[in-house]
Design goal:
Elements lengths: L1 H33 L2 E6 L12 E5 L2 E8 L4 E9 L4 E5 L11 E5 L2 E8 L4 E9 L4 E5 L11 E5 L2 E8 L3 E9 L4 E5 L11 E5 L2 E5 L2 E2 L2 E2 L3 E4 L4 E3 L21 E5 L2 E9 L1 E10 L4 E5 L11 E4 L4 E4 L2 E2 L2 E2 L3 E9 L5
Antiparallel strand pairs: 1-28, 2-3, 3-4, 4-5, 6-7, 7-8, 8-9, 10-11, 11-12, 12-13, 14-15, 15-18, 16-17, 18-19, 20-21, 21-22, 22-23, 24-25, 25-28, 26-27
Length: 336
């Protein structure tokens, strides 16, 4: 009788241990499922005035932030960010009219800046920055109408500026030839007119979408390889599957890193911290952990070989000077 009781008690203890083990394993699994990749880490604060609507471009391991608006003044200063040392150095001021909402890109070790708004006028001048001599040189005026809220990018040795606002929203694109210092209209874009759109480039292909037109959010999305346009999956995909999503965003900031595209912050009904990644190999979007800084619009971004940063921007009348590094391969950690 005692032996039987011992065996029964042993069985009960074993079953209880097994149940508890399965319970904790389930909890651990659930915790793992809740883990999300995409971590934001705050970097060195910008040395200059807080601002939004600045131009940014990357040359080597240096990022450049130029112009913008700080809530009182339109700006013309130039700042260089050393991504390896995480520090800022002020460089030669932009000699053109102080402005905001211009566009910029880099080609062959030089930066380019054009269009924008000076508080009274839309602008169409275009400039080149040489970091080796820390000097600016004016180039041929942009080929389209004077405007602001456009997008700019480079593919190979050519630069492009398109869309924007010149009194009404536009959808034209223009190509800049560095060798001849000339502009030529690039045709074929079938998308809607818009301002404050987003663009990122991956392997010499530009991906363009978002922004507003007639007060509404645009949801068409295109790629451009320098010669032809391709319409991709719309940003309001509502097919009968489990991958439905909707991205409605204006005045956000976009960048690419390690073959993926990213869009974060901006206006989505109100200012937001939402973040999305785009995989060009599958033409799919995934929502990421939210940007860990304050919600904002009109921020800027730098992308280097293995790291990316989002910086500046505004929330209403408050202007930011913080800098955040995005690490796509790290688990989200709000405490770092």
């Amino acid at each position: 009788m005692r032996k039987t009781n011992f065996i029964q008690k042993s069985k009960i203890l074993f079953l209880a241990t097994l149940i508890m083990s399965l319970f904790f394993a389930s909890c651990t699994s659930d915790d793992d499922d809740d883990d999300e990749y995409g971590n934001w880490v705050e970097s060195s604060t910008f040395d200059g005035n807080s601002r939004a609507n600045s131009v940014s471009f990357t040359i080597g391991t240096k990022g450049y932030l130029v112009t913008g608006y700080d809530g009182d003044d339109y700006l013309a200063d130039t700042w260089e960010y050393n991504s390896d040392g995480d520090y800022w150095v002020q460089k030669a001021s932009f000699p053109g009219v102080a402005r905001s909402s211009a566009v910029g890109f880099s080609i062959n070790g030089k930066g380019y800046l054009g269009t924008g708004y000076d508080g009274d006028n839309e602008l169409n001048d275009f400039w080149e920055y040489d970091p080796t001599t820390d000097s600016w040189e004016q180039k041929a005026d942009f080929g389209g109408t004077a405007r602001y809220g456009a997008i700019g990018f480079s593919i190979g040795n050519d630069g492009y500026i398109g869309t924007g606002y010149d009194g009404s929203e536009q959808k034209d694109f223009w190509k800049y030839d560095v060798a001849t210092n000339t502009w030529e209209q690039s045709v074929g874009f079938g998308g809607e007119k818009r301002q404050n759109a987003s663009v990122f480039t991956i392997d010499d292909v530009a991906y363009i979408g978002l922004g507003i037109h007639n007060g509404g959010y645009e949801e068409d999305f295109y790629s451009f390889n320098g010669s032809s346009w391709t319409r991709l999956t719309d940003l309001d995909d509502d097919d009968d599957d489990d991958d439905d999503f909707e991205i409605q965003l204006s005045s956000g900031v976009a960048f690419s890193l390690n073959g993926m595209g990213y869009v974060t912050t901006g206006i989505a009904g109100s200012i937001t911290t939402e973040s999305w990644s785009y995989d060009p190999s599958t033409d799919t979007w995934d929502e990421l952990p939210a940007f860990e800084g304050s919600a904002r619009q009109n921020a800027s971004a730098f992308t280097f070989t293995d790291k990316a940063f989002v910086l500046m921007g505004r929330s209403g009348s408050y202007y930011f000077d913080d800098v955040w590094e995005f690490r796509p391969d790290e688990l989200e950690n709000e405490d770092d």
